[in-house]
From TrEMBL:
NAD-dependent epimerase/dehydratase domain location: 5-223
InterPro entries linked to this entry: Epimerase_deHydtase, Lipid_A_modif_metabolic_enz, NAD(P)-bd_dom_sf
Domain of life the protein comes from: Bacteria
Name the record gives this protein: NAD-dependent epimerase/dehydratase family protein
Length: 304
């Protein structure tokens, strides 16, 4: 049995990871400031500490008894980072530096959740980890800056770049929720699905259970050179196709309304999964239609 620290462990991804590690018999400590996380996302047996990753002393104290850190805490969206840039830099950059310092001090592995936003708008091709990064948002630039600093700590750092993660416990009302959670909620209440532009923009949607498997594999990998991998499926769906698939999963007909395209939006985003497969044995298992059914079932269950 090992003891792991998850920053942001009461968030969407962090809560699922905490459940997985706890179910495997490990001790889990969660650090979360509850700016967006929910206590019921974490397993009841986890130790939950209310605090922020900007508190370096607290983070180091918690990490001192741990065998590894998964650093998920962030102002985790392009829009939120733009709305409060000073806070975003403090949390996204300063908090990551604190996590790095804690890992160095304890000589323990650190898994960092970066973002596909580091690639910017790379076109319709699959992007590889070795491709040039050209973020077009402050959020993406902050994530890329942290990646560069983390690579300097040697064999203990693993960087995961998740693409568009979805699944149960992604609350549609949260400012951090993605398009899938919101579209499901709208379909279920008979409201129209509003799409910016013609809906031809495409994304690589990866199910939460798959991302948790990747993070777990990264946490347990043997020491070696710093590693950066995509968290993706290697397959895309357009937003218009997604709307139809969600309506089908909800048993409704889609009511789609088109609005103007948003300036600065990334048109296409697709990751290359080969390096994660070769280095960590990871391959996404969940087809989009199956993941949508699970997510719809969860949202329906919250009505009870």
């Amino acid at each position: 049995m090992k003891h792991y620290l998850i920053t942001g462990g009461c968030g969407f991804i962090g809560g699922h990871l905490a459940h997985e590690l706890s179910a495997a018999g490990h001790r889990v400590t969660v650090l979360d400031d509850f700016s967006s996380g929910r206590e019921d996302n974490a397993p009841p047996e986890a130790r939950i500490v209310r605090g922020c990753v900007t508190d370096g002393a607290l983070l180091s104290e918690l990490a001192g008894t741990c065998d590894g850190i998964v650093h998920l805490a962030a102002i985790a969206s392009v829009e939120a980072a733009a709305d409060d840039p000073e806070r975003a830099v403090a949390v996204n950059v300063g908090g990551t530096r604190n996590a790095l310092a804690a890992a160095r001090s304890g000589n323990i592995p650190l898994v960092y959740a970066s973002s596909a936003a580091v690639y910017g708008d790379a076109g319709a091709r699959r992007v590889r980890e070795s491709d040039r990064c050209a973020p077009i948002s402050d959020y993406g630039a902050q994530k890329l800056e942290c990646e560069r600093e983390l690579r300097g700590i040697g064999p203990l750092a693993t960087i995961v770049r998740p693409f568009n993660v979805y699944g149960p416990r992604q609350h549609p009302a949260s400012p951090y929720s993605g398009v899938i959670a919101r579209f499901i909620a709208l379909c279920r209440t008979g409201e129209p699905l509003r799409i910016n532009g013609d809906g031809s923009q495409s994304r690589d949607f990866v199910y939460i259970a798959d991302i948790v498997r990747l993070l777990t594999a990264a946490l347990k990998r043997e020491a070696g050179e710093p590693l950066t991998v995509n968290g993706c499926t290697g397959q895309t769906v357009t937003v218009l196709e997604l709307a139809g698939a969600i309506a089908a999963a909800c048993g409704t007909e889609p009511d789609i309304r088109h609005g103007p395209a948003r300036a600065g939006d990334i048109l296409h985003s697709c990751g290359d999964p080969d390096l994660a497969a070769a280095s960590l044995g990871f391959k996404a298992r969940t087809p989009l239609d199956a993941g949508l059914r699970e997510t719809v079932a969860w949202q329906r269950g919250t009505d009870q």
